[in-house]
Protein backbone atom coordinates (compact mmCIF):
# COMPACT_ATOMS: atom_id res chain seq x y z
CA UNK A 1 0.00 0.00 0.00
CA UNK A 2 1.26 3.45 -0.92
CA UNK A 3 1.39 5.75 2.11
CA UNK A 4 2.03 9.09 0.44
CA UNK A 5 -0.62 11.59 1.51
CA UNK A 6 -2.26 13.17 -1.52
CA UNK A 7 -4.82 15.42 0.17
CA UNK A 8 -7.45 15.69 2.88
CA UNK A 9 -11.12 15.03 3.42
CA UNK A 10 -11.69 18.72 2.67
CA UNK A 11 -10.66 18.10 -0.95
CA UNK A 12 -13.15 15.34 -1.80
CA UNK A 13 -16.31 17.28 -2.68
CA UNK A 14 -14.44 20.05 -4.54
CA UNK A 15 -12.86 17.29 -6.65
CA UNK A 16 -16.30 15.72 -7.20
CA UNK A 17 -17.61 19.10 -8.34
CA UNK A 18 -14.66 19.42 -10.72
CA UNK A 19 -15.52 16.01 -12.19
CA UNK A 20 -19.01 17.40 -12.81
CA UNK A 21 -17.54 20.42 -14.58
CA UNK A 22 -18.57 23.01 -11.98
CA UNK A 23 -16.82 26.31 -12.63
CA UNK A 24 -14.33 27.27 -9.92
CA UNK A 25 -14.16 23.79 -8.35
CA UNK A 26 -10.53 22.82 -7.71
CA UNK A 27 -9.43 19.21 -8.10
CA UNK A 28 -6.52 18.96 -5.65
CA UNK A 29 -6.79 15.17 -5.72
CA UNK A 30 -5.98 14.81 -9.40
CA UNK A 31 -9.14 12.89 -10.29
CA UNK A 32 -10.17 14.71 -13.44
CA UNK A 33 -7.30 13.44 -15.57
CA UNK A 34 -7.68 9.68 -14.88
CA UNK A 35 -11.47 9.68 -14.51
CA UNK A 36 -12.49 12.39 -16.98
CA UNK A 37 -15.52 14.67 -16.89
CA UNK A 38 -18.69 12.85 -15.89
CA UNK A 39 -22.38 13.64 -15.55
CA UNK A 40 -22.88 11.87 -12.23
CA UNK A 41 -20.77 11.40 -9.11
CA UNK A 42 -21.62 9.11 -6.21
CA UNK A 43 -19.77 9.81 -2.94
CA UNK A 44 -19.99 7.18 -0.21
CA UNK A 45 -18.61 7.88 3.27
CA UNK A 46 -17.86 4.68 5.21
CA UNK A 47 -17.66 5.72 8.85
CA UNK A 48 -14.52 4.30 10.45
CA UNK A 49 -12.84 3.02 7.26
CA UNK A 50 -9.32 3.95 8.34
CA UNK A 51 -6.34 3.57 6.01
CA UNK A 52 -4.45 1.34 8.45
CA UNK A 53 -7.44 -0.98 8.77
CA UNK A 54 -7.66 -1.79 5.05
CA UNK A 55 -5.40 -4.91 5.03
CA UNK A 56 -7.33 -6.53 7.89
CA UNK A 57 -10.68 -5.53 6.38
CA UNK A 58 -9.70 -7.09 3.06
CA UNK A 59 -9.86 -10.57 4.62
CA UNK A 60 -13.64 -10.32 4.49
CA UNK A 61 -13.97 -7.93 1.56
CA UNK A 62 -13.21 -9.30 -1.94
CA UNK A 63 -13.67 -5.95 -3.65
CA UNK A 64 -11.39 -4.21 -1.18
CA UNK A 65 -8.82 -6.97 -1.63
CA UNK A 66 -8.75 -6.37 -5.39
CA UNK A 67 -8.38 -2.63 -4.78
CA UNK A 68 -5.40 -3.20 -2.46
CA UNK A 69 -3.89 -5.49 -5.09
CA UNK A 70 -4.16 -2.70 -7.66
CA UNK A 71 -6.56 -4.69 -9.86
CA UNK A 72 -9.46 -2.25 -9.74
CA UNK A 73 -10.24 1.29 -8.65
CA UNK A 74 -7.77 4.03 -7.79
CA UNK A 75 -6.59 4.12 -4.17
CA UNK A 76 -5.25 7.32 -2.60
CA UNK A 77 -4.08 8.16 0.93
CA UNK A 78 -5.80 11.15 2.57
CA UNK A 79 -5.99 12.57 6.07
CA UNK A 80 -9.13 13.51 7.92
CA UNK A 81 -9.63 16.69 9.91
CA UNK A 82 -8.74 17.02 13.60
CA UNK A 83 -10.28 15.96 15.90
CA UNK A 84 -10.69 12.65 14.07
CA UNK A 85 -14.35 12.37 15.00
CA UNK A 86 -17.49 12.02 12.91
CA UNK A 87 -19.33 15.36 13.38
CA UNK A 88 -16.15 17.33 12.70
CA UNK A 89 -15.31 15.37 9.57
CA UNK A 90 -18.79 15.23 8.11
CA UNK A 91 -18.77 19.03 8.06
CA UNK A 92 -15.19 19.26 6.78
CA UNK A 93 -16.18 16.89 3.96
CA UNK A 94 -19.29 18.81 2.97
CA UNK A 95 -17.93 22.36 3.37
CA UNK A 96 -14.38 21.67 2.21
CA UNK A 97 -13.20 23.67 5.24
CA UNK A 98 -11.03 22.96 8.28
CA UNK A 99 -12.72 22.66 11.71
CA UNK A 100 -11.37 26.00 12.89
CA UNK A 101 -13.28 27.61 10.03
CA UNK A 102 -16.62 25.78 10.23
CA UNK A 103 -16.72 25.56 14.03
CA UNK A 104 -17.71 21.90 14.59
CA UNK A 105 -14.54 21.37 16.58
CA UNK A 106 -15.36 18.10 18.31
CA UNK A 107 -17.89 15.43 19.20
CA UNK A 108 -19.12 17.60 22.07
CA UNK A 109 -18.43 21.29 22.65
CA UNK A 110 -19.10 23.81 25.37
CA UNK A 111 -21.52 26.49 24.20
CA UNK A 112 -19.56 29.69 24.98
CA UNK A 113 -21.00 31.81 27.77
CA UNK A 114 -22.81 28.85 29.31
CA UNK A 115 -22.10 25.60 31.14
CA UNK A 116 -23.98 23.68 28.43
CA UNK A 117 -22.23 20.94 26.49
CA UNK A 118 -23.59 20.41 22.98
CA UNK A 119 -23.52 16.80 21.78
CA UNK A 120 -23.52 17.13 17.99
CA UNK A 121 -25.15 13.74 17.47
CA UNK A 122 -28.13 14.75 19.65
CA UNK A 123 -28.26 18.37 18.49
CA UNK A 124 -31.61 19.61 17.20
CA UNK A 125 -32.17 23.35 16.76
CA UNK A 126 -30.40 25.07 19.66
CA UNK A 127 -28.06 26.69 18.80
CA UNK A 128 -29.36 27.44 15.29
CA UNK A 129 -27.34 25.53 12.72
CA UNK A 130 -26.65 28.56 10.52
CA UNK A 131 -25.09 30.37 13.47
CA UNK A 132 -23.18 27.42 14.88
CA UNK A 133 -21.89 26.35 11.43
CA UNK A 134 -22.01 29.41 9.14
CA UNK A 135 -20.15 28.18 6.04
CA UNK A 136 -21.87 27.14 2.81
CA UNK A 137 -21.78 23.45 1.92
CA UNK A 138 -20.83 22.02 -1.44
CA UNK A 139 -24.42 20.87 -1.80
CA UNK A 140 -25.44 24.54 -1.76
CA UNK A 141 -22.69 25.47 -4.18
CA UNK A 142 -23.67 22.73 -6.59
CA UNK A 143 -27.31 23.73 -6.45
CA UNK A 144 -26.40 27.34 -7.22
CA UNK A 145 -24.38 26.07 -10.19
CA UNK A 146 -27.45 24.26 -11.52
CA UNK A 147 -26.27 20.78 -10.50
CA UNK A 148 -28.61 18.49 -8.54
CA UNK A 149 -27.25 17.36 -5.18
CA UNK A 150 -28.95 14.59 -3.22
CA UNK A 151 -28.12 12.82 0.05
CA UNK A 152 -29.55 9.39 0.89
CA UNK A 153 -29.53 9.30 4.69
CA UNK A 154 -31.08 7.27 7.53
CA UNK A 155 -34.48 8.77 8.27
CA UNK A 156 -33.57 9.55 11.87
CA UNK A 157 -30.86 11.94 10.61
CA UNK A 158 -33.51 14.26 9.18
CA UNK A 159 -34.37 17.22 11.37
CA UNK A 160 -31.12 17.16 13.34
CA UNK A 161 -28.84 20.16 13.71
CA UNK A 162 -25.86 18.20 12.43
CA UNK A 163 -27.73 17.14 9.29
CA UNK A 164 -28.73 20.74 8.65
CA UNK A 165 -25.19 21.99 9.26
CA UNK A 166 -23.52 19.34 7.11
CA UNK A 167 -26.05 18.65 4.36
CA UNK A 168 -27.96 21.88 3.86
CA UNK A 169 -28.59 22.49 0.21
CA UNK A 170 -28.96 18.78 -0.56
CA UNK A 171 -32.23 17.15 -1.49
CA UNK A 172 -32.60 14.69 1.40
CA UNK A 173 -33.76 11.17 0.60
CA UNK A 174 -34.57 9.22 3.79
CA UNK A 175 -33.88 5.51 4.01
CA UNK A 176 -35.56 3.28 6.58
CA UNK A 177 -34.14 0.36 8.51
CA UNK A 178 -34.45 -2.78 6.43
CA UNK A 179 -34.62 -1.01 3.08
CA UNK A 180 -32.20 -2.05 0.33
CA UNK A 181 -29.74 0.82 0.60
CA UNK A 182 -27.71 -0.08 -2.48
CA UNK A 183 -30.83 -0.16 -4.64
CA UNK A 184 -32.08 3.13 -3.24
CA UNK A 185 -28.76 4.85 -3.99
CA UNK A 186 -28.59 3.31 -7.46
CA UNK A 187 -32.10 4.60 -8.23
CA UNK A 188 -31.11 8.11 -7.16
CA UNK A 189 -27.95 7.99 -9.23
CA UNK A 190 -29.80 6.82 -12.34
CA UNK A 191 -32.67 9.30 -11.89
CA UNK A 192 -30.79 12.47 -12.85
CA UNK A 193 -27.28 13.83 -13.45
CA UNK A 194 -25.50 15.43 -10.50
CA UNK A 195 -24.07 14.43 -7.10
CA UNK A 196 -25.47 11.67 -4.90
CA UNK A 197 -24.11 11.14 -1.38
CA UNK A 198 -24.49 8.11 0.86
CA UNK A 199 -23.31 7.21 4.36
CA UNK A 200 -22.94 4.01 6.36
CA UNK A 201 -22.03 3.71 10.06
CA UNK A 202 -22.04 -0.09 10.38
CA UNK A 203 -18.26 -0.51 10.55
CA UNK A 204 -17.75 2.29 13.08
CA UNK A 205 -20.57 1.02 15.29
CA UNK A 206 -19.05 -2.46 15.38
CA UNK A 207 -15.62 -1.01 16.22
CA UNK A 208 -17.03 1.01 19.12
CA UNK A 209 -19.19 -1.73 20.60
CA UNK A 210 -17.18 -4.88 19.93
CA UNK A 211 -13.70 -3.72 18.94
CA UNK A 212 -11.63 -3.54 15.78
CA UNK A 213 -10.88 -7.11 14.70
CA UNK A 214 -13.93 -8.57 16.42
CA UNK A 215 -16.27 -11.04 14.71
CA UNK A 216 -18.92 -8.32 14.47
CA UNK A 217 -16.46 -5.89 12.91
CA UNK A 218 -15.46 -8.41 10.26
CA UNK A 219 -19.14 -9.09 9.53
CA UNK A 220 -19.68 -5.36 9.06
CA UNK A 221 -16.71 -5.27 6.66
CA UNK A 222 -18.31 -8.01 4.58
CA UNK A 223 -21.62 -6.14 4.45
CA UNK A 224 -19.96 -2.90 3.38
CA UNK A 225 -17.93 -4.67 0.71
CA UNK A 226 -21.15 -6.13 -0.64
CA UNK A 227 -22.73 -2.66 -0.67
CA UNK A 228 -19.79 -1.17 -2.55
CA UNK A 229 -19.64 -4.10 -4.98
CA UNK A 230 -23.30 -3.61 -5.90
CA UNK A 231 -22.77 0.14 -6.34
CA UNK A 232 -19.78 -0.44 -8.63
CA UNK A 233 -21.82 -2.90 -10.69
CA UNK A 234 -24.72 -0.43 -10.94
CA UNK A 235 -22.50 2.53 -11.85
CA UNK A 236 -23.73 4.22 -15.06
CA UNK A 237 -21.17 4.69 -17.82
CA UNK A 238 -21.20 8.46 -17.31
CA UNK A 239 -20.58 8.23 -13.55
CA UNK A 240 -17.77 8.07 -11.00
CA UNK A 241 -17.85 6.57 -7.52
CA UNK A 242 -15.72 8.03 -4.73
CA UNK A 243 -15.44 6.09 -1.46
CA UNK A 244 -13.83 7.70 1.58
CA UNK A 245 -14.00 7.78 5.38
CA UNK A 246 -14.18 10.22 8.26
CA UNK A 247 -11.50 8.63 10.51
CA UNK A 248 -9.78 5.40 11.49
CA UNK A 249 -9.55 4.08 15.02
CA UNK A 250 -7.93 1.80 17.58
CA UNK A 251 -8.92 -0.38 20.52
CA UNK A 252 -8.22 0.99 24.00
CA UNK A 253 -7.50 -1.67 26.64
CA UNK A 254 -8.77 -1.29 30.20
CA UNK A 255 -5.35 -0.51 31.64
CA UNK A 256 -4.91 2.44 29.23
CA UNK A 257 -8.00 4.28 30.49
CA UNK A 258 -8.12 7.07 33.05
CA UNK A 259 -11.27 8.50 34.59
CA UNK A 260 -10.88 12.21 35.32
CA UNK A 261 -13.88 12.09 37.64
CA UNK A 262 -12.19 9.46 39.79
CA UNK A 263 -8.96 11.42 40.28
CA UNK A 264 -9.06 14.55 42.50
CA UNK A 265 -5.90 15.85 40.81
CA UNK A 266 -7.67 15.86 37.42
CA UNK A 267 -11.01 17.15 38.71
CA UNK A 268 -9.58 20.20 40.43
CA UNK A 269 -10.28 23.54 38.76
CA UNK A 270 -12.54 22.12 36.02
CA UNK A 271 -15.80 23.93 35.18
CA UNK A 272 -16.92 22.09 32.01
CA UNK A 273 -15.68 18.91 30.34
CA UNK A 274 -16.21 18.47 26.58
CA UNK A 275 -14.60 16.68 23.64
CA UNK A 276 -14.38 12.89 23.91
CA UNK A 277 -12.06 10.30 25.49
CA UNK A 278 -9.23 10.71 22.96
CA UNK A 279 -9.39 14.53 22.86
CA UNK A 280 -10.53 16.42 25.94
CA UNK A 281 -11.54 20.08 26.12
CA UNK A 282 -11.31 21.31 29.71
CA UNK A 283 -12.93 24.65 30.51
CA UNK A 284 -11.49 25.83 33.79
CA UNK A 285 -12.67 27.83 36.76
CA UNK A 286 -11.55 31.50 36.69
CA UNK A 287 -7.82 31.70 37.35
CA UNK A 288 -7.33 27.91 37.41
CA UNK A 289 -5.93 27.28 33.93
CA UNK A 290 -2.27 27.27 34.98
CA UNK A 291 -2.87 24.82 37.82
CA UNK A 292 -4.96 22.53 35.59
CA UNK A 293 -2.23 22.51 32.95
CA UNK A 294 0.39 21.63 35.54
CA UNK A 295 -1.67 18.84 37.13
CA UNK A 296 -2.68 17.23 33.87
CA UNK A 297 0.85 17.41 32.47
CA UNK A 298 2.17 15.66 35.57
CA UNK A 299 -0.48 12.94 35.71
CA UNK A 300 -0.54 12.24 31.95
CA UNK A 301 3.19 12.64 31.28
CA UNK A 302 4.10 10.53 28.25
CA UNK A 303 0.47 9.54 27.69
CA UNK A 304 -0.99 12.75 26.27
CA UNK A 305 -0.07 16.17 24.95
CA UNK A 306 -1.56 18.79 27.28
CA UNK A 307 -1.85 22.26 25.74
CA UNK A 308 -3.32 25.60 26.59
CA UNK A 309 -5.89 26.79 24.05
CA UNK A 310 -3.32 29.09 22.47
CA UNK A 311 -0.76 26.30 22.22
CA UNK A 312 -3.31 23.91 20.71
CA UNK A 313 -4.33 26.43 18.06
CA UNK A 314 -0.67 27.14 17.29
CA UNK A 315 -0.09 23.47 16.40
CA UNK A 316 -2.22 24.06 13.30
CA UNK A 317 -4.24 20.90 13.91
CA UNK A 318 -7.56 22.76 13.64
CA UNK A 319 -6.49 24.76 10.59
CA UNK A 320 -7.03 28.53 10.82
CA UNK A 321 -9.43 29.23 13.68
CA UNK A 322 -12.07 31.92 13.23
CA UNK A 323 -12.01 34.18 16.33
CA UNK A 324 -15.69 33.55 17.13
CA UNK A 325 -14.95 29.79 17.32
CA UNK A 326 -11.99 30.08 19.72
CA UNK A 327 -14.05 29.82 22.96
CA UNK A 328 -15.41 26.45 21.82
CA UNK A 329 -11.93 25.00 22.32
CA UNK A 330 -11.11 24.25 25.95
CA UNK A 331 -8.86 26.41 28.08
CA UNK A 332 -6.87 23.18 28.28
CA UNK A 333 -6.72 20.67 25.40
CA UNK A 334 -5.67 17.08 26.11
CA UNK A 335 -4.70 14.99 23.05
CA UNK A 336 -4.08 11.33 23.84
CA UNK A 337 -1.03 9.47 22.61
CA UNK A 338 -0.73 5.72 22.07
CA UNK A 339 -3.73 3.84 23.42
CA UNK A 340 -4.70 6.28 26.18
CA UNK A 341 -8.32 7.36 26.70
CA UNK A 342 -9.52 9.87 29.30
CA UNK A 343 -13.01 8.94 30.47
CA UNK A 344 -15.35 11.36 32.22
CA UNK A 345 -17.89 9.12 33.92
CA UNK A 346 -19.47 12.01 35.79
CA UNK A 347 -20.05 14.02 32.62
CA UNK A 348 -20.90 11.49 29.90
CA UNK A 349 -23.40 8.66 29.35
CA UNK A 350 -22.26 5.40 30.98
CA UNK A 351 -22.09 3.63 27.61
CA UNK A 352 -19.05 5.75 26.66
CA UNK A 353 -16.92 3.95 29.25
CA UNK A 354 -18.05 0.59 27.86
CA UNK A 355 -16.81 1.26 24.33
CA UNK A 356 -13.86 -0.76 23.01
CA UNK A 357 -12.87 1.09 19.84
CA UNK A 358 -12.08 4.82 19.95
CA UNK A 359 -10.87 7.66 17.74
CA UNK A 360 -10.51 11.42 17.92
CA UNK A 361 -6.80 12.02 18.45
CA UNK A 362 -4.04 12.83 15.96
CA UNK A 363 -2.31 9.46 15.52
CA UNK A 364 -1.90 8.00 12.03
CA UNK A 365 -4.23 5.16 12.99
CA UNK A 366 -6.99 7.71 13.55
CA UNK A 367 -6.21 10.38 10.95
CA UNK A 368 -5.24 8.40 7.83
CA UNK A 369 -8.15 7.59 5.51
CA UNK A 370 -8.50 6.22 1.98
CA UNK A 371 -10.08 7.61 -1.15
CA UNK A 372 -11.12 4.95 -3.65
CA UNK A 373 -12.24 6.13 -7.09
CA UNK A 374 -14.09 4.11 -9.72
CA UNK A 375 -15.13 5.21 -13.19
CA UNK A 376 -18.29 3.83 -14.78
Automatic annotation (TrEMBL):
Example of a GO MF term: hydrolase activity
Family annotation (SUPFAM superfamilies): Alkaline phosphatase-like (SSF53649)
Top-level taxon of the source organism: Bacteria
InterPro entries, alphabetized: Alkaline_phosphatase_core_sf, Phosphodiest/P_Trfase
The protein's name: Nucleotide pyrophosphatase
Originating species: Mycobacterium pseudokansasii
